[in-house]
Automatic annotation (TrEMBL):
SUPFAM superfamilies: Dimeric alpha+beta barrel, NTF2-like
Species classification: Bacteria, Pseudomonadati, Bacteroidota, Saprospiria, Saprospirales
Organism per entry: Flavilitoribacter nigricans (strain ATCC 23147 / DSM 23189 / NBRC 102662 / NCIMB 1420 / SS-2)
Name of the featured protein: SnoaL-like domain-containing protein
Keyword Signal: yes
Stored Pfam families: SnoaL_4 (PF13577)
Gene3D superfamilies in the record: 3.10.450.50
SnoaL-like domain mapped to chain residues: 25-144
Keyword annotations from UniProtKB, A to Z: Signal
Length: 238
C-alpha cells in the first residue's frame, strides 16, 4: 500500500510539472502570437491577419456585429485598410484556460486611432477583447474574437483594517482576471482611512455582475473585514 501511494505521489509530481511547463509554453506562444497580430495590423497586412483565424472563426464587435469565417474577416480588414489609416495598440492582461470553451482565452484592451483616407476624419476607438485560441497544426489561431466596450466600476465600503482587506483583495486577482477584470486600483478616502475603494475595468457589465453576485465573493469580503453593504457605481464613458 505504501509503495502504491509513493508511486501515485511520484506520478502526480511528474505529470503536474509537465502540465505547468506546457501551460507556461502555451502562454508564451500566445503572447508571441499577439505581437505578430499587432505587427500585421500595423503593416495593414489583411492576408496575414486572415491566416491568424480558424477557417470558421467568428468575430464580434459592438459596431459591425458578427462576421463569420476567416475569408470574411480578412475582407473586413482589407476594407478597413483601404478606407482608413489607423494604428492599433494592444494591452494584453491575461491568458486563462476556459473549461467552457475547452481552450485558452487571451484577454486585454485595444485602442485604434488614426484618420480616414478621404477627408482625414479622425478615428479613435477603444475597448476590450477576448480571443478564444485554438492550436491547429502547431500554429495558434483565433477561433472566436469578441470585442466589447470597456466597463468602469467604482466600489467602495467600510473596512475594519485597510491593509488586511487589501491583502485578501490582492490574493483574489487571478479569480477576478479569469472572470473578466482588466485592471483595478485601490485606496482609501482622503479623510476616511476606513473607507476603501476599488476602481476597476471589466470586459463587460455582465462579467462584473456575475462575479459580484458570486456567494464566494461575499464570503471573502466578510472574511477580509468589509463592514456593511458596498456601494457600486457603474460609469458610462462619454
Amino acid at each position: 500500500m505504501k509503495h502504491l501511494l509513493l508511486l501515485m505521489v511520484v506520478l502526480i509530481t511528474i505529470f503536474g510539472g509537465q502540465l505547468q511547463a506546457q501551460t507556461a509554453s502555451n502562454e508564451f506562444e500566445i503572447q508571441n502570437f499577439t505581437r505578430k497580430f499587432l505587427a500585421a495590423y500595423n503593416l495593414q497586412d489583411a492576408k496575414a491577419l486572415k491566416n491568424m483565424y480558424t477557417k470558421d472563426a467568428v468575430r464580434v464587435d459592438p459596431i459591425k456585429g458578427e462576421i463569420r469565417g476567416a475569408d470574411k474577416i480578412g475582407e473586413y480588414f482589407d476594407q478597413q485598410f483601404i478606407h482608413n489609416n489607423t494604428t492599433l495598440l494592444l494591452r494584453p492582461t491575461s491568458i486563462t484556460w476556459s473549461d467552457r470553451e475547452h481552450a485558452f482565452v487571451a484577454r486585454g484592451t485595444y485602442e485604434v486611432f488614426g484618420a480616414t483616407v478621404v477627408y482625414d476624419i479622425g478615428i479613435h476607438d477603444a475597448g476590450a477583447y477576448a480571443n478564444t485560441m485554438i492550436k491547429e497544426k502547431g500554429e495558434w489561431k483565433i477561433a472566436r474574437s469578441v470585442l466589447t466596450p470597456l466597463v468602469k466600476v467604482i466600489v467602495y465600503h467600510k473596512v475594519k483594517d485597510f491593509n488586511e482587506w487589501k491583502s485578501v483583495f490582492d490574493e483574489g486577482k487571478p479569480q477576478r482576471m479569469a472572470a473578466g477584470e482588466l485592471h483595478a486600483e485601490v485606496g482609501t478616502l482622503h479623510d476616511d482611512p476606513t473607507t476603501a475603494y476599488v476602481i476597476s475595468e471589466w470586459i463587460s457589465l455582465e462579467s462584473f455582475q456575475n462575479f459580484f453576485a458570486d456567494p464566494a465573493l461575499q464570503k471573502s469580503m466578510t472574511e477580509a473585514g468589509v463592514i456593511g453593504k458596498p456601494t457600486v457605481l457603474i460609469l458610462d464613458g462619454q
